[in-house]
Design a protein that fits this description.
By secondary structure, the chain is an alpha/beta fold. Helices cover 39% and strands 20% of the residues. The strands form three sheets. The chain has a five-stranded antiparallel sheet, covered by helices on one side. It has a four-stranded mixed sheet with strand order 2-1-3-4, sandwiched between helices. The longest helix has 20 residues.
């Protein structure tokens, strides 16, 4: 938790603390089987439908960004009977493109999916805790919708509650309520999501950057379990990835920031926004989030820079961008006073 981290930092800064020499700490264990053991645990999960996945005979292109994912993802797919076409799966540490799994970095994956006539594409980040999909046409499924799709499957099998952070898509709330569950939003950060998941007994949660947290396996973001559950969903629905995406509420996001003069009272600026929109649904758990009928805005200050980040979501990209720029203008106006 954040409190545990604070205590560790206080201990590390204590002058009375006596540190061991590095050579006297613990022991080194070499075990090449840990990935296989983790995959074993995933395949043993009741909601991972191995037979249906194998029967579907999926063909999938994997972009492992030349990291651990290049080993783990193909191994998982092989165990599930999926034909994996490897792209950048040599774990040599040389990233072939920016490792953040965003559309602008994934031109090669898009081209490969179309060329191979694959059912879809998979991309993970270097430590395999963020997961994004690409449909059979080479178009992004949407990183925000990774959690939405996996939650749709999990909730359809085992009704319950969900959690994501405040900057994540409203689509998860829509899907959760469709299945009769309750959705809660946490402050940004994996530790905050997990804390709220435990408090609300959420059965699935995560973050809009493609992070899946499935407590049945463990309380941490895990792309591998996300892949297995997504494949189970596709095998169950028997539709294409592009058709699956069309079945979900369609929202668009805008992510902006405004730089302020050093020394300005950022908390005071956010307080003014809060007061201006007091008649709307507001949360101050993490900055200021304002929920409107057809969209939302989330304003967060940086802890290291005089910056306010502006996240918005609406029913079209135009509306999301317009909402973001409206608040950028308001923040700039307040800052000048």
């Amino acid at each position: 938790s954040a409190e545990d981290g604070k205590q560790i930092l206080e201990l590390s800064e204590s002058a009375s603390l006596s540190f061991n020499d590095v050579d006297s700490l613990g022991k080194i264990t070499i075990n090449q089987a840990y990935i296989d053991l983790h995959i074993d645990e995933i395949l043993d999960l009741p909601l991972v439908n191995k037979k249906a996945i194998e029967a579907a005979k999926f063909k999938v292109v994997v972009d492992g960004v030349n990291s651990t994912g290049g080993i783990a993802v193909p191994l998982l797919l092989e165990r599930l009977g999926v034909h994996a076409v490897k792209l950048y799966c040599e774990p040599n540490g040389h990233f072939p493109h920016n490792p953040e799994p965003l559309k602008e970095h994934l031109g090669d994956l898009s081209e490969k999916v179309v060329k191979e006539h694959a059912d879809f594409g998979i991309v993970v980040d270097p430590d395999v805790d963020r997961l994004a999909f690409m449909d059979e046409k080479g178009e992004m499924f949407g990183e925000e919708y990774t959690l939405v799709a996996v939650a749709d499957y999990v909730l359809g099998q085992t009704p319950g509650n969900t959690v994501s952070n405040m900057s994540s898509t409203r689509a998860l709330k829509d899907i959760t309520e469709k299945h009769g569950g309750s959705y809660q939003a946490s402050a940004v950060g994996e530790v905050n999501v997990v804390e709220l998941m435990k408090k609300t007994n959420a059965i699935i949660g995560g973050e809009g950057n493609g992070g899946i947290i499935y407590p049945e396996l463990h309380y941490g973001r895990d792309a591998l379990v996300g892949i297995a559950l997504f494949l189970s969903l596709l095998a169950d629905k028997r539709i294409s990835v592009s058709e699956l995406r069309k079945s979900y509420p369609s929202y668009f996001m805008s992510k902006q920031k405004i730089e302020l003069t050093p020394g300005l009272d950022v908390d005071g600026i956010l307080k003014t926004i809060e007061q201006r929109y007091a008649s709307e649904k507001i949360s101050t758990v993490d900055g200021v989030k304002i929920d409107f009928e057809k969209g939302w805005v989330h304003l967060r200050k940086s802890n290291t820079e005089p910056i306010i980040r502006i996240y918005t979501e609406a029913g079209s990209q135009y509306d999301a961008d317009a909402l973001a720029h409206k608040f950028m203008d308001e923040l700039a106006e307040i800052a000048k006073k």
